[in-house]
Amino acid sequence: NADIAMYRAKEQGRNNYQFYALEMKNKFLRRAVLEKGMRKALERNEFRLHYQPQIDLQTGHIVGVEALIRWIHPEEGMISPIEFIPLAEETGLIAPIGEWILETACSQIMQWQGKGFPLMRVSVNLSARQIQQQNLVGYVGTVLERTGLDPKLLELEITESIAMYNEDYVINKLNSLKRLGLQIAIDDFGTGYSSLNYLNKFPIDTLKIDKSFINQITDASDHNEIITTIIAMARNLKLKVIAEGVETVEQLHYLQNQKCNEAQGYFFSKPLSVEDFELLFRQIASAAAGKVES
Ligand code: C2E
Ligand code: MG
Ligand code: MG
Ligand code: MG
């Protein structure tokens, strides 16, 4: 019946409209809630850093950790950085949050060293807005002094798109950061930009191969031209290569065969809270002790 069909279409149209309106309203509300909450989150101590181990593929040892921020919102629960970091950038709150991240990560490494854990490098993500911050170099230097962390053990991760944004400005900024003695990594490498010219111009130490490439490896004997090329290029440029998002033993073996330097991913460990990381370290230590005894 044509009338009924038309009625149904109208009804569905209205429902769709209502659905979109509701979705828009929810997005808007959530954004407002998060934005308001973020202003208080630092003083209310709602941010946490989780740490994901980075493994040297020759020795099998944990040589570094990447610090990854989490927000434990009192009503909304755990909120992903993918959702709130862009909001923090838009509102400018990334400045105080970024300083908190850096200080917390550096002092955590020192605390772990004090507890007898092996000394590790720590990688901290920098967002676009932080690179543009006037006082970035100043506060990174201050944090290094205040925490006493050896600058060689700090690595700052930036994405290719940041590196391209304002070339000369970013090159100067990175050179000033490098003078503090720290290291610079390009995060999500291979996803951003079509020209590789900047690899020569920028003072970079490390390339982190994006997990979308690692995902494609299903077999240790796979042939992945992009990964092979990135690793060969990094070797020629004397850069270290870290593979991100390693989830399977096949991917691990593939990367070992390719002489990739380091790897990070769920195969080894998810990003862990401080407590869980300490547990992992004790397990590794007692397993090593067990091996020596037997
Ligand atoms: P990223 O820096 O590329 O971090 C790697 C992301 O991959 C992390 O997500 C990590 O949990 C996830 N990951 C690690 N191993 C695996 C794996 O084997 N499989 C899969 N599927 N994923 C894996 P997370 O923690 O949700 O962070 C997402 C992004 O948010 C980060 O990407 C980074 O761009 C940003 N971010 C996180 N923490 C911070 C921070 O402290 N400051 C800034 N500015 N950005 C941050
Ligand atoms: Mg990163
Ligand atoms: Mg990445
Ligand atoms: Mg990413």
Automatic annotation (TrEMBL):
Residues 31-285 form the EAL domain. It comes from the Bacteria. It is found in: Cell membrane. This is Phytochrome-like protein cph2. It comes from Paenibacillus konkukensis.
